[in-house]
Amino acid sequence: MTRYGRVVATHGRHVWVEDEQGQLQLCHPRGKKNLAVVGDEVQWLPSADEGTLESIQPRRNLLYRQDETRTKSFAANLGQVLILLAAEPMFSESQLNRALIAARAAGIEAFVVLNKQDLKDAFDTGWQRLAPYRAMGLQVQALSLVSGSGLEALRQQLWGRITFVLGPSGVGKSTLVNHLLPDAGAATAAISKALNSGRHTTTSTRWYWLDSRREGAIIDSPGFQEFGLQHIESTQLATLMPDMAAALGQCRFYNCTHLHEPGCGVRAAVGQTISEHRYKLYTELFAELSAPPRY
20 with 148, same domain? Predict the structure, then answer.
């Protein structure tokens, strides 16, 4: 008889499924491909050794990125996305913009946390660079994982929700998990031990419950350097950037690209409600998404 569970870690084609009693079971999919991701609610069939994934329940959302050759799914059924940045080394606004667009396209609320508040000069510069994002309504929080400043406020933001932690390499994602959950390392070690001495690929994305009642969780993920948005239509792009979207109703033409048309409300707002740098990010990404595929 099939059982219900949730995918809490992935290992190549195999996944760890947590059942309704909180027990973990290593499962493999039927067929050659594994389409399940962390956060998926699934039906699985127990067996003597490993369970078998039978079906994936309909998803409420799915966060993913896509370049010209590959699609990378991060996680499903999320309540929010935490984009963790660091003041040093200085973060890429292009990467931040892409992550925000992907979350908005998936219908998932996102907020930003800027780490390394203890590095005052670097932090002040990073905080100022985030001013246009705060102005368009994005929640931005300050954090120092060295001093602990801002950690309690972040706990409150995470409480009772399923949060995916996204960010480039080296910003402190693993350190954040260890601060929030001192036993996270032990939980990961337990799974590694159960994998029978390296029989399966090391986990890359991992679910951690934040409380004993299992009402909130965070999902840790590997750092990224590239974030493709090939699943986004260039004509949809402005609707996914809140500062651009606010000016869309003021364009003369319904199919305005906001690049060269007369009477464009978006271009008229550049330097006022839209920063010049944000508009530059839009034009660069529009050109990328409009380019013919390379084979």
Answer: no
pTM of the entire predicted model: 0.91
Fill in the amino acid letter for 208: Y
- Which amino acid is present at 210? L
CB 103 within 8 A of CB 95: no
Instruction: Choose the final residue of a domain: 166, 189, 220.
Output: 220
- Give the total residue count for the chain: 295
Q: Is residue 110 part of a domain?
A: yes
d(CA 294, CA 261): 28
Inter-residue contact 104 to 110 (CB < 8 Å): yes
Helices and strands (H, E) in the chain, number of each type: 9, 13
CB 163 within 8 A of CB 141: no
Residue 129 lies in a domain: yes
Domain that holds residue 14: 3-56
Rounded to whole angstroms, the Cα distance separating 9 from 278 reads: 36
**137 and 206 co-located in one domain:** yes
What is the H or E stretch that residue 210 is in?
Answer: none
Give the residue from 183, 198, 220 where a domain finishes: 220
Query: Over the stretch 10-57, which tens digit does the pLDDT of each residue have?
Result: 877 889 999 988 899 999 888 777 789 999 999 999 987 789 999 999
CA distances to 132, 135, 237, 267, 276 from 271, rounded to whole Å, are 11, 13, 19, 9, 6
Q: Which two tokens stand for residue 169?
A: 């390499």
pLDDT of residue 295: 60
- Find the mean pLDDT for residues 260-285: 96
